Amino acid sequence: MPTDIELPGPIVVVGPPGAGKTTVGQALAAHLGMEFRDTDADIVATAGKPISDIFVDDGEEHFRALEREAVAVAVAEHQGVVALGGGAVLSEATRALLANVTVVYLDVDLSEAVKRVELDRGRPLLAVNPRATLRGLLEQRRPLYREVATLEVDTTGREVADLVAQISAAVARRRVDVGGEQPYPVIIGPGGSSDIIEYLGQATRVAIVYTASVSERAELVARAVNSRVAPVMLEVPDAEDGKTIAIAQQCWEALGTEGFTRSDLIIGVGGGAVTDLAGFVAASWLRGVAVVHVPTSLLGMVDAAVGGKTGVNTSAGKNLVGAFHPPRAVLCDTDSLLTLPTPDLAAGLAEVVKAGFISDPRILDLIEADPKAALDPGNAVMAELIERAIAVKARVVEADLREGGLRAILNYGHTFAHAIEKVENYRWRHGDAVAVGMVYAAHLGALTGRADLVERTTSVLSALGLPVSYQGGRWDDLSEAMRIDKKALGSTLRFVLLEDLAAPVIVADVSAEHRAAAYERVSE
Ligand SMILES: NC(=O)c1ccc[n+]([C@@H]2O[C@H](COP(=O)([O-])OP(=O)(O)OC[C@H]3O[C@@H](n4cnc5c(N)ncnc54)[C@H](O)[C@@H]3O)[C@@H](O)[C@H]2O)c1
Ligand SMILES: O=C(O)C(=O)C[C@@H](O)[C@H](O)[C@H](O)COP(=O)(O)O
């Protein structure tokens, strides 16, 4: 995948002897393409003798002072992975050096720690009776490791590769570049929203559009912005209630009052509804000011905030008023996902599944292998899914921003989904509607002689707890709602169907009989 890894500074690895700081630290550094550094090795180089000799000749206190100095230098200079000696956290001054650093605490249970250190007898504090000594060390130091840790990982009985995948997903930021006429980065990873300061440009005024549900996230962004400009906070109604022309109008009024000019900036902090609205306000104010999206929902990260489609709903249908307006950057702070309710995580995964069917079947394999992991924001599987889905969208929108052709494939399942949303007065989650819409499209595909992906579609969506059917007896309303679809040409409806997995086509000749028959099959 065409992605880079960005680190928010060095990653420091701490933990007791036998936890695997060197082995895991080196493997993590290799995986991230970074350098590995070990403060014990730095101390040996500075002192010109082995650590055991420093303990014997100069005493532990002297060693801790050398260690403090080595940690201070490493944290200030190094951008890779730094492993500290097991006792480094004993010094309060050393712990203070770790206050604003990403620290991974590797833990291990006593028996496995004993086994591991018995293979490595060169440790001064473990020369005699390692089991009792280790037990004492673990009891004394565990609270101190926890005090400095950003992430705690139990290494007992686990493979190094598995640990590396978990840690890198949890601490490293990834980047997907969206190319095309107006390129921009999508940054993915924990804590990413604080990067906002890099994307303020020349702005002397900044407006943050957000909903009450994510006020803490908006506050974090506001604090970061505030070091340059005091932002105007524009709280809007939640979800689709905020995606209206009336709310856009209120935002325009606020921008007018604040005297927003073309060099100023709008930031959307929230789910897809907020980023669609904020993007539309930015696209229309003075015919276009910059917008940075900080999506807080999974669906916002993998789809809505990326690609430059912005808009609001009207009484005639979903997203019928809008503009193509690419953002300056998209900051996917995956810490946000920790507060997102599971049904909203699942709804976001519906768009990820879509990316799997239209372009990247590895997504489907990953979800089918472990649907629970796919729904777990702390799991490396979810991190990989986010990145893969964004990469699919990036490759499509950079080739066809204004949906002249290819981009329509991103609408797979959406003709029926948007009809459900309209008929349900926008009270259905978008992702839930897309799930049912994909089952409908799979039936249409099978009915029209293409690949039969109905079983795979329903099973992968059901595994995520997503709906796969819709109530019967609503065909007239639904087919009326489907008439106003942005893919339609004149009175001809066009559907995205799959010739096969990852082989989408845009089809204009789906008969009324097939459309109605697919509804019968998807209805409960
Ligand atoms: N522009 C595009 O390309 C594009 C693509 C896909 C979807 N969309 C649009 O995106 C919208 C759907 O996005 P969505 O699923 O994010 O819905 P949403 O914006 O309505 O958010 C869903 C719910 O989650 C809450 N929420 C968001 N982040 C949270 C967090 N971190 N913690 C707790 N609660 C949180 C919201 O307040 C809301 O109640 C639809 O309007 C859809 O049309 C646009
Ligand atoms: O980005 C696109 O293009 C998409 O179609 C992505 C869809 O997942 C998304 O729901 C989008 O908002 C639908 O666009 P619309 O043009 O059908 O309103």
Automatic annotation (TrEMBL):
Binding site for Zn(2+): E351, H414, H430
Cofactor, how bound (note): Binds 1 Mg(2+) ion per subunit. Binds 1 divalent metal cation per subunit. Can use either Co(2+) or Zn(2+).
Pathway entry: Metabolic intermediate biosynthesis; chorismate biosynthesis; chorismate from D-erythrose 4-phosphate and phosphoenolpyruvate: step 2/7; Metabolic intermediate biosynthesis; chorismate biosynthesis; chorismate from D-erythrose 4-phosphate and phosphoenolpyruvate: step 5/7
Keyword Metal-binding attributed: yes
E.C. number: 2.7.1.71, 4.2.3.4
Binding site residues for NAD(+): 238-243, 272-276, 296-297, 309, 318
Residues annotated for ATP binding in this entry: G18, A19, G20, K21, T22, T23, R123, R158
Cofactor(s) required for function per UniProt: Mg(2+); NAD(+); Co(2+); Zn(2+)
InterPro entries xrefs: AAA+_ATPase, Dehydroquinate_synthase, DHQ_synth_AroB, DHQS/DOIS_N, DHQS_C, P-loop_NTPase, Shikimate/glucono_kinase, Shikimate_kinase/TSH1
UniProt-annotated binding residues for substrate: D40, R64, G86, R141
AAA+ ATPase domain sequence ranges: 7-144
Pfam families: DHQ_synthase, DHQS_C, SKI
Subunit structure: Monomer.
Similarity field: Belongs to the shikimate kinase family.
PANTHER family linked: 3-DEHYDROQUINATE SYNTHASE, 3-DEHYDROQUINATE SYNTHASE, CHLOROPLASTIC
Name this polypeptide is given: Multifunctional fusion protein
Organism of this sequence: Natronoglycomyces albus
